[in-house]
Write a structure and sequence with these properties.
Elements: E1 2-4, E2 8-25, E3 29-48, E4 51-70, E5 74-94, E6 100-121, E7 126-139, E8 142-146, E9 148-152, E10 155-168, E11 174-184, E12 188-189, E13 191-193, E14 196-197, E15 201-202, E16 205-216, E17 224-235, E18 237-248
Length: 250
């Protein structure tokens, strides 16, 4: 991914999550809920007017998730997550003489999301899922010394995603495609060095997200469920990635 921040940052990351959950059928609809653990690791490169700088980051945490779908295929979903992250770099900080300095910081994070949507079902197993989702994430502030004393403020992301996904559901393997608009309301990083403000960096702005995937649903004869997809971004956030999800239903 590439994020425009005034300068720009290129990131390369992978993440993994393991979860266990339950699905209950009720008179009013379907209730799904579960608990998960997550881990992510990556590296980044900052390109600015002082040159190139590199760093690494990783995080580990967990959370809760839930979803309710009524008899009219209208659903509401939510999740909460928390954990701890580490961020280190060797040459991200530069002084007036061009000397490079690094840091190694650790901070807690937490996040939550809520979403609503409706699935419209058509003939021959085709369906359209129209949704809106809001994601909030916060990383606590941190302090460190690298010749001078740095105090980094907390960083918050406040992201709204509105989109739709169209696909099939009547075959062994079903395809889907989706398009969404995203807007980041915050995403600003600020701080001080020796009580003097550091120039802020922000990822606030609009992006477009497209996705394409294949999905195999579990059945009475096959307890395995698989979802494989690729996605891409354009706008303030540019880049591409992919997901592989495997579930065993029992």
């Amino acid at each position: 991914s590439r994020y425009e921040t005034g300068s720009h940052v290129n990131t390369r990351t992978w993440n993994a999550a393991v979860a266990i959950g339950r699905r209950n059928e009720t008179k009013k609809g379907t209730v799904e809920y579960g608990i998960f653990g997550e881990y992510g690791k990556g590296n980044y490169t900052l390109h600015s007017d002082v040159g190139r700088s590199d760093g690494d980051a990783h995080y580990a945490g967990g959370g809760l998730m839930a979803k309710f779908t009524n008899k009219h295929d209208v659903y509401t979903e939510a999740s909460f997550r928390l954990g701890r992250m580490s961020d280190s770099a060797d040459d991200l900080l530069r002084d007036g003489a061009g000397n490079a300095y690094g840091y190694d910081i650790h901070a807690n994070y937490f996040g939550a999301h809520i979403g609503v949507g409706k699935v419209f079902k058509y003939d021959k197993g085709k369906s359209l899922d129209v949704y809106g989702k809001y994601f909030y994430t916060k990383r606590d502030g941190a302090e460190f010394d690298a010749v001078q004393h740095y105090n980094l403020d907390s960083v918050k992301s406040s992201l709204l995603r509105i989109g739709a996904r169209y696909g099939t559901s009547n075959k062994l393997w079903n395809w889907y495609g989706g398009l969404a608009y995203e807007y980041e309301f915050d995403g600003e990083a600020e701080g001080t060095v020796n009580n003097t403000a550091i120039r802020s960096a922000s990822v606030k702005g609009s992006s477009v997200r497209g996705e394409l995937g294949l999905r195999m649903e579990a059945s009475k004869s096959n307890p395995w469920q698989t979802d494989i997809s690729i996605y891409g971004y354009g706008g303030k956030h540019r880049g591409f990635g992919g997901n592989v999800s495997v579930a065993y239903m029992f």
